[in-house]
Write a structure and sequence with these properties.
This protein has helices at about 15-30, 35-40, 50-55, 65-85, 95-105, 120-125, 150-160, 175-180, 210-215, and strands spanning about 5, 110-115, 135, 165-170, 185-190, 200. The chain is of the alpha/beta class. Helix 8 (about 175-180) links the parallel strand 4 (about 165-170) and strand 5. It contains nine helices and six strands. The longest helix is centred in the middle third of the chain and has 19 residues, at about 65-85. Bound molecules: 1,6-di-O-phosphono-alpha-D-glucopyranose and magnesium ion. The site of magnesium ion has 9 residues, from loops.
């Protein structure tokens, strides 16, 4: 039976995917790299440097920049992003998620955070939801980011549960792959075609309920 939940942060709990996009888009504009749908969804869930490489490679210009220049671009993106997230309040928890977290807690289900973001503890604090979670995976301490299973595997360890007793929630393709390869049950939130590898799909965060998940899993 299911005993725990591992949450992605950006796009699942927090309305911050738009800020990542906005901050990267500014860098892309400065570098004269056209912003596309593929970049918009491709940067979801992958770490900061991988996001930059995806953007540079979309125009085939990654080799034009030294490692130092890439670090500087990633830092500039993060400085802008940090400015944007400093405005977050509990109202920026995505629709339905306050209720979902409270329901899981009332049912004694354990929760952890499986985010690729180094800014996760700060964001949880701003949203005032830190107390729901047993722990937060430190993405700088895992070998490989999403789509590798490491982050979601670590989130199950934090819960002290075997992966098959854990449900993982994600809005990105990279994240669903991570959950599945960690041996957990994947819940995709967003476009069902894009997230077709998810075991269960909900179109939006407001559709996610414990009752629906139980029904899907015959639990
Ligand atoms: C998030 C976002 C990604 C971002 C990554 C790293 O992951 O979806 O777009 O690149 O974190 O964030 P930071 O630059 O803050 O370390 P997740 O896993 O929470 O969706
Ligand atoms: Mg996400």
């Amino acid at each position: 039976t299911i005993k725990g939940f591992a949450f992605d942060l950006d796009g699942v709990l927090a309305d911050t995917a738009r800020f990542h996009s906005q901050a990267w888009r500014q860098i892309a504009d400065e570098l004269d790299i056209p912003w596309t749908e593929a970049l918009e969804s491709g940067i979801k869930g992958i770490d900061r440097m991988s996001s930059l490489m995806l953007i540079l490679n979309s125009k085939g210009v990654a080799d034009n920049y030294s490692d130092e220049e890439k670090e500087a671009l990633a830092k500039r993106k993060n400085d802008h992003y940090k400015e944007l997230i400093s405005t977050l309040t509990p109202d920026d928890v995505l629709p339905g998620m306050h209720e979902f977290l409270a329901d899981l807690k009332a049912n004694d289900l354990k929760m952890s955070i499986a985010s690729a973001s180094k800014n996760a503890p700060f964001i949880l604090d701003k949203l005032q939801i830190s107390d729901y979670f047993v722990g937060v995976v430190d993405p700088s301490k895992v070998k490989q980011g999403k789509p590798a299973p490491d982050i979601f595997a670590e989130a199950a360890k934090i819960l002290n549960l075997p992966p098959e007793q854990v449900v993982g929630l994600e809005d990105s393709e990279a994240g669903i792959t991570s959950i599945n390869d960690a041996g957990e049950i994947s819940v995709g939130i967003g476009d069902a075609l894009q997230l077709h590898a998810a075991k269960i799909n909900f179109p939006s965060t407001k559709d996610v309920t414990l009752a629906q998940i139980k029904a899907h899993l015959n639990w």
